[in-house]
Amino acid sequence: MREKKMSTIAVLGAGPGLGMSVARRFAKEGYAVGLVSRSSDRHPGYLETLAASGVPAVAVAADLREPGGPARALAEITSELGPIDVVYHGPGAHDLSAPTIGILETGPADIRRAIAATVEPAAEVASLVLPAMRSRGSGSLVYVSGLSALVPLPFLGPYAPASGALRTYARTLAAAAAEDGVHVGSLVVGGLIERGDIHQMLTDPTTPSPYATLDPDELADAIWRLASGLEDEVVFDVLTPQPAEG
Fold this sequence. Notes:
Elements: E1 8-12, H1 18-28, E2 32-37, H2 43-51, E3 57-61, H3 69-81, E4 86-89, H4 108-136, E5 140-146, H5 159-177, E6 183-190, E7 192-193, H6 197-202, E8 213-214, H7 216-227, E9 233-237
Parallel strand pairs: 1-2, 1-4, 2-3, 4-5, 5-6, 6-9, 7-8
């Protein structure tokens, strides 16, 4: 009897926060893990962490926003680990030091750039993996968008409409791909993710964080549920004030 192939996840956006929590969560379930991030500097440490799980893992340095970046990264993962069963799409901010502009100062060119940095890579990834998934009748993609997809956050400027467009793309793709047995999940995140690059940049590890934060391991559990088809969308919101009870 032929041995069943180990399932594989491609983690597109392998940072120290949510990306690696997703990698560890799926490794715990026996998935081989392909990691993708812009720089290879931290890859040895990531791979050492996953080695403790006993699953095959590979790390690829690629910029998903560059033309051909997703194709090269996914091809390398497939070459090393076999067909990809799950894609987690959660690339981090391109430039953490870049100044932000509000929605009132946002022009058409700003929105085009934001769309090009978020929605276009997401669509390219889908075009690369969906044909094989639909042919097999199985597979999952999980897209991460920000809370501005649901709640007006004017300070995010062009990334607010871009985030809304990404969520709409994911939800629409989900409706179309479901009949072929493919799950497309949407994770909406409103809050600072602990251990991530932005969290490390904004906080002092020796003092309590002044920000409302999210545990990346809890988010990774939600991504597992989304990839498993148990839920279609999960929202984590620690930014919006909740109405008082009673």
